[in-house]
């Protein structure tokens, strides 16, 4: 969502800026600096916070990638590119990458499909209580993934009238399932909860996109005798494409950063079976319940994180290129 | 349908009436599906709410049944006092409130001068802010930790507030910049004629006029700070009494794995305030999201 908002606003034509510009520009840079002093004062809090807590840390962590360092004192053991080499050869890192990709590849399409269907239903102007239903399905978004993780853990615990009990009674399973103890099933649970928790964003995005399609277009289609399916394929889908592209990219960016849910539900376990990249990095930097055998290594964690950052940038570029070439081919086909 | 429309007595034909009945039936079916689906969708919350009133025995015997075996309010007093959820609650309120105030102050002031005034370096500042969106945001928590230590803010809630706020600064600044740049210049001119200086124009005129944007940014910041897990987790590792609700929940599971009903009460304490805030102000939240994707 941030990517779209980077457009710079219209430069101020003649507002307060001119009023407070005490001298005309030709009187030199210094006078203009003095004239703008209040602007600098107002900008200062943001710039200080940004430089200290956003810009410097990005470069600071880059420097750590060249050291073996447990995070205490100052880094001394320079190892060059060893950390990157170690990450690239760590099978657990690559398993974490593959778990993160599996998570994203399942969550994004399923979630977008459900969100689109819901948005189409709720976008009907004649449907009453549409806003109420939207709120209902949106609600999980405003709750904490950590708290949700704890709740899900409680719901899956083996007490009384449980999911296992129901499934056993229905003879769907032969013996109780260890929901969070089996890596594959645990990853599945994380995926389901992930879909549930962030679906609301995409619902609202799709509704916003649908509302940009003018009602007259639908009426024209109706007059031309187009049915629901043809209207959807020939009008809704093409007109929704620009917003849809943004939604897909945002959904992938979000899902690649999954952390809270995994950390709370499984901590990346059992035996790294649900380790995603962000929990892997966290365990490297702070030590963890299962990576406890190794001492925290901030240099290695920074290297892993930087490496993953590069992978993601590569993926984003690839994504944009694929979309662009698809659009070009479609345009060529139409011509 | 085309045939029906051309019929002169279209409302009275049986076919037309049948179509209307079918449409009503279809609508009702959609409502039914949405309602049942919505209830299932919110089941985890309903179950948590119900289970927070269960007795310890009731919790074990009832499992996924959301209805409690009584109203055991002692879970709430137990969670609040015994399990420190009262402390966590106060911490979370302070973190969310502090983040909202800090973010709104820093970003509205900056957004205003970037949008409405001209000064040397303005474009460079906008450029710098934009670039931070595209730099690979790696694992920057360790350098941040160092700076917080250098400022002697380690083991204070200020650390959580400042670090949490800094995560959403850029986005909020752009929102304010966009909002202020669309405002009418005549408003400023009128303020100037009335003798308002730079400060008065901003604090008395422009800021009050940006109410909807204050609400949008404030709500976004409030929700993300209330729910934040990673930042408070890292900055309270050695200070359990500074934990926020999500971190408190997480560590409670790790330590006392028997007081399940307390945990449910704790979940309700964590969820209800933010859901209430959202329901009151959701218009601003949803409009903000929709605006972001429409570009």
Automatic annotation (TrEMBL), chain A:
The protein's name: Carbohydrate ABC transporter membrane protein 1, CUT1 family
Cellular compartments annotated: Cell membrane
Chain coiled-coil ranges: none
Name of a matching Pfam family: BPD_transp_1
Keyword annotations: Cell membrane, Membrane, Transmembrane, Transmembrane helix, Transport
UniProt topology in membrane: Multi-pass membrane protein
Gene3D superfamilies in UniProt: MetI-like
Database matches in SUPFAM superfamilies: MetI-like
Family (UniProt): Belongs to the binding-protein-dependent transport system permease family.
Species for this entry: Actinacidiphila yanglinensis
Protein's GO biological process: transmembrane transport
TrEMBL record, chain B:
GO cellular component, one term: plasma membrane
Pfam families reported in the protein's UniProt record: BPD_transp_1
InterPro entries: MetI-like (IPR000515), MetI-like_sf (IPR035906)
Membrane topology: Multi-pass membrane protein
Transmembrane regions listed in the UniProt entry: 28-47, 88-114, 126-145, 157-180, 260-281
Domain ABC transmembrane type-1: from-to ranges: 89-281
Primary localisation category: membrane
Keywords annotated in UniProt: Cell membrane, Membrane, Transmembrane, Transmembrane helix, Transport
Biological-process GO terms, alphabetical: transmembrane transport
Location in or out of the cell: Cell membrane
UniProt family annotation: Belongs to the binding-protein-dependent transport system permease family.
Entry protein name: Carbohydrate ABC transporter membrane protein 2, CUT1 family
UniProt source species: Actinacidiphila yanglinensis
């Amino acid at each position: 969502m941030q990517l779209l908002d980077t457009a710079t606003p219209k430069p101020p034509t003649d507002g307060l800026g001119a009023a407070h510009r005490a001298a005309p520009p030709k009187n030199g840079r210094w006078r203009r600096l003095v004239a703008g002093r209040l602007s600098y004062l107002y900008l200062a809090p943001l710039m200080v916070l940004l430089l200290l807590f956003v810009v410097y840390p990005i470069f600071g962590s880059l420097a750590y990638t060249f050291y073996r360092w447990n995070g205490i004192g100052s880094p001394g053991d320079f190892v060059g590119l060893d950390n990157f080499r170690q990450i690239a050869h760590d099978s657990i890192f690559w398993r974490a990458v593959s778990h993160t990709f599996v998570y994203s590849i399942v969550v994004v399409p399923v979630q977008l499909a459900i969100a689109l269907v819901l948005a189409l239903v709720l976008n009907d102007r004649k449907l009453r209580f549409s806003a109420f239903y939207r709120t209902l399905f949106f609600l999980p978004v405003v709750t904490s993934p950590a708290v949700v993780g704890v709740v899900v853990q409680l719901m899956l615990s083996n007490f009384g009238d449980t999911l296992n009990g129901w499934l056993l009674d229905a003879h769907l399973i032969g013996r109780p399932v260890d929901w969070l103890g089996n890596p594959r099933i645990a990853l599945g649970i994380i995926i389901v909860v992930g879909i549930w928790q962030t679906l609301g964003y995409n619902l609202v995005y799709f509704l916003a996109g649908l509302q940009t399609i003018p009602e007259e277009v639908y009426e024209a289609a109706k007059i031309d005798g187009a049915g629901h399916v043809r209207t959807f394929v020939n009008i809704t889908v093409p007109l929704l494409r620009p917003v849809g592209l943004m939604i897909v990219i945002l959904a992938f960016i979000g899902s690649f950063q999954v952390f809270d849910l995994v950390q709370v539900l499984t901590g990346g376990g059992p035996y790294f079976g649900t380790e995603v990249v962000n929990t892997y990095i966290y365990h490297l930097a702070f030590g963890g319940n299962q990576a406890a055998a190794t001492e925290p290594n901030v240099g290695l964690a920074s290297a892993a994180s930087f490496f993953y950052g590069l992978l993601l940038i590569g993926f984003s570029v690839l994504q944009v290129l694929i979309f662009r070439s698809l659009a070009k081919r479609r345009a060529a086909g139409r011509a | 349908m085309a045939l029906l429309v051309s019929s002169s007595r279209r409302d009275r034909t049986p076919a037309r009436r049948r179509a209307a009945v079918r449409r009503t039936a279809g609508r009702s079916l959609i409502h039914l599906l949405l309602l049942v689906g919505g209830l299932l969708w919110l089941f985890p919350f309903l179950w948590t709410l119900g289970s927070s009133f269960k007795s310890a025995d009731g919790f074990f015997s009832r499992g996924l049944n959301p209805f409690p075996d009584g109203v055991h309010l002692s879970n709430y007093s137990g969670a609040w006092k015994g399990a420190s959820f009262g402390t966590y609650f106060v911490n979370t309120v302070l973190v969310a409130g502090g983040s909202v105030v800090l973010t709104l102050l820093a970003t509205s002031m900056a957004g205003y001068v970037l949008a409405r005034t001209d000064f040397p370096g303005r474009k460079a500042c906008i450029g710098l802010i934009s670039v931070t969106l595209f730099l690979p945001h790696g694992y920057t928590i360790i350098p941040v930790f160092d700076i917080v230590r250098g400022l002697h803010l380690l083991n204070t809630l200020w650390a959580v507030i400042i670090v949490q706020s800094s995560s959403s600064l850029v986005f909020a600044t752009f929102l304010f910049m966009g909002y202020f740049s669309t405002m009418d210049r005549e408003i400023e001119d009128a303020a100037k004629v009335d003798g308002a200086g730079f400060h008065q124009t901003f604090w008395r005129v422009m800021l009050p006029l940006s109410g909807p944007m204050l609400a949008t940014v404030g709500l976004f910041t409030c929700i993300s700070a209330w729910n934040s897990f990673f930042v408070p987790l890292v900055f309270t590792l050695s200070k359990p009494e500074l934990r926020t609700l999500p971190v408190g929940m997480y560590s409670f599971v790790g330590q006392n794995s028997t007081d399940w009903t307390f945990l449910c009460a704790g979940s309700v304490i964590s969820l209800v305030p933010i859901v209430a805030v959202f329901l009151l102000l959701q218009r601003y939240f949803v409009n903000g999201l929709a605006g972001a994707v429409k570009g």
